[in-house]
Amino acid sequence: MYKLAFFVPEQAAEAVKQAVFATGAGRIGDYEHCCFQTLGQGQFRPLAGAQPHIGEVDQLETVMELKVELVCEDHLVKAAVAALKAAHPYEEPAYDVWPLTSLSAL
């Protein structure tokens, strides 16, 4: 099992979450579309050569974003990340993937 976390502008969050959920990610037992999300402020400065969805090259930008966290089975994680990248409005979306340890393994 893996944990997938990604950052997405508020207005794009539902579309990106639905794309990731469509791969089967976010299932816990008899529940689907499970996630936790936290509202916060992200910042970035697009460099020369960037084509930012929001903001201007060489200008510091701040955006209200959601951090979305969900679990993903091993065999689905590559498809979930691919769906995230395809649905996300940023050309370089920020995300983390890390393996989880089962309590039965402890």
Automatic annotation (TrEMBL):
Signal peptide: none annotated. PANTHER family: NGG1P INTERACTING FACTOR NIF3, PTHR41774. Transmembrane segments: none annotated. It comes from the Bacteria. This is NGG1p interacting factor NIF3. InterPro entries: DUF34/NIF3_sf (IPR036069), N-reg_PII/ATP_PRibTrfase_C (IPR015867).
